[in-house]
Write the structure tokens for this entry.
Amino acid sequence: MTRAVAGAGIRRPPLRHPLRLAAALAVAALTLLPLGYVVAGVVAAGPEGVVALVWRPRVGELLRNTVTLVLLGTTACVVLGTGAAWLVERTSLPGRALWTGLMAAPLAVPAFVNSVGWYALFPGFDGLDAAVAVTTLSYFPLVYLPVAAVLRGIDPAFEELGRSLGLGPWRVVARVVLPQLRPALLGGALLVGLHLLAEFGALQSLRFDTFTTAIYDQFQSTFDGAGATMLAGVLVLLCLLLLAGEAGLAGRARISRVGSGVARRAAPHRLGAATLPAVIALSALAVAALGVPLVSLASWLVTSTSTAFPLAELAGTAATSLGLGALGALATCLLALPVAWLAVRCRGRLAILVERATYIGNSLPGIVVALALITVGIRVVPALYQSTAMLVAAYAVLFMPRAMVSLRAALAQIPPELDDVGRSLGVGPAGVLARVSVPLIARGIGAGGALVFLAVVTELTSTLLLAPIGTETLATRFWSESSELHYGAAAPSALLMIVLSAPAAWLLTRRAAR
Amino acid sequence: MTGLDVRGLRRSYGDVPVLQGLDLTVPAGALTAVVGPSGCGKTTLLRLVAGFDRPGAGTVTIDGRAVTGPGVLVAPERRRIGYVTQDGTLFPHLTVARNITFGLPRRERRARHRVAELLELVGLDPAHADRRPDELSGGQQQRVALARALAPRPALVLLDEPFSSLDTELRASTRRAVVDALAAAGTTTVLVTHDQAEALSLAGRVAVMRDGIVVQEGPPAELYRRPGDRGVAAFLGEIVELPARLVEPGSRNGATVLVRPEQLTLTAGGDAGMIAEVLDVAFYGPYAEVRARTTEGTVVRARCPGHLVPEPGARVGISVTGAVL
């Protein structure tokens, strides 16, 4: 704070680094490609074309399905996630550490594995109910984690103050606790909504059609550019509506985040006789979200006639996944670096725009990103179509925010004075970069890269559309085997994916805990 | 010999002028304090001298070498300066020893004796060499930062409010250690601070800054006793206004003079130049501050020793010792 006082009168001169600025702009352009593709498609079709393609009963049905799923699924995730977070963080529930792990663990099971697991155990489990149930079980941790972090960090003094001002316990929750939870709740709900809009594998296997599955089918069956593009246009519109809605609702609440350093933990609410029902409820949630898919996998391995461990093949597939993951992580971090640098060191309108652009790219479903890259690729650089480079570019667009968050945090921890001090000691700019900046952000790059790596390993939609012919990842192998009901053959890939995703889930838990 | 010479330095941010043609001369081998209220441009001055920023106009000369001027802008790393920030800014990924040797050529970085020498110079146990910055107290971090700045034997050391983030107790000991180390090294030093007591007590020369220029400069005692104007007088210490009659022939009758509160002596009797009634007393232990109204109606503040405190309501005599400002 003393720094703020002394530095109040100083504005750092705008740094002029044309190379880094150009790099950041190029990255922003790449991440805006999908949006540009949709807009260009709409413009090319013209008003009448758009009406002809969009104003159809089929589109109406898809819209109804998609909106219903997003509304029901998001509500269910908010209720389950907040309830579980409150039970774990603020009550006398026994076994807190265990529950903390169990409530985040569903993130390690890809939604399409979860859905196949449910469907295999309960044939006939499909349609809207099934889609809402399975996606909720897969995505409620996205609400649980931020809400639990805030509940853990809320200073109990606020609640005590509320009580001292004459509010009863429930009114304290409504007027003191909920307002503080609002940014976390809205942020979590937005993530769930975007995931639901983008979800492909789980919904396809549960036979529930949304825009994402319809775009995929249309593209696979007819290769119909215009039709798929129009559907993608409606889907993008829904995404932007969600983003705008969240931004509008969050308002200024977002600015005041709860500080990290809190002196005291709140006294837990005594559950008393309610302890047993609470334990049963959380156990049921854990069984449904984790137990069912894992039991399914285990039973396939043991009983399925198609169970096989073609070791060489599996090893090859796993190696492909690992290789793509490493390439994706490397490319994403390299691309995120100039943007993160711009956002941290040259705060300004342009920097904010560029940074937002990279987040918009990520908010669009993988299917739209894949379609955009295919279309642009075929027209501009045909050689890139179905190349590894294009697949990696899609990963970079999709997962850049995961790298950005870590890189930004790491860069923000380097005060600009460090550069000044280094220079004053007789070391030139390159030396300062090598001896100060790079060692300091190495850990941030590592953490961001790990998150991207693990997201790539379980990515299905874009990989199905963009992977070069003959390239098989664990995700696509599981998908093709389970689509043909060869569950036994699919199981080893799923297990490998879960083993690889577990560290990511753990990292996300730790980050949310801070 | 001049260590640092600044002429006509100007800098503005947008439409806001921060430095408006600042002149400053710093003698070599001594500590000069630049003191002024927050926002007067002190830090901007340091950043321009260090070369982190480019001025709108003006020249900077270090040890006779022009480093900033028309057509000249020497990079910070070629200026042979040492720079110590408000909170030390140690490299968080390096140990104390590697922080200190950061600015040395690769061959000399291994030499442990240099690290030990420098740690001793700033009054730290050489055993601290392998600690990490986060294991040090704020005062220790500042001492390491100074050792790091002195290691490449700079021609000029710039201290940017180096003690303001320390608490009172650490501040006194750290100030002493830093000033002693700088005196031992014999380096030309510019200390920027908003704390006038710090400037007066540590520096051989003090320059008072206001609104982007140096308004007065000189040895601390002279500045305190003979401030150039009322603003400088009020910035460097408390002042008391007294009505006066000038006795020289031909002068106007009524005038006001300024004195320091410690120049006023309270006496029990009524034989002094002024009689006053005590309004209230703030007792600090060794001394007390007394507010009193003179018979002419002026309210004055005076200091008196703790064992001679008058009661509120008492009538006291007030006499002035020393010359008025």
Summary: DSSP finds 22 helices and no strands in chain A. Residues 1-15, 252-263 of chain A have pLDDT under 50 and may be disordered.
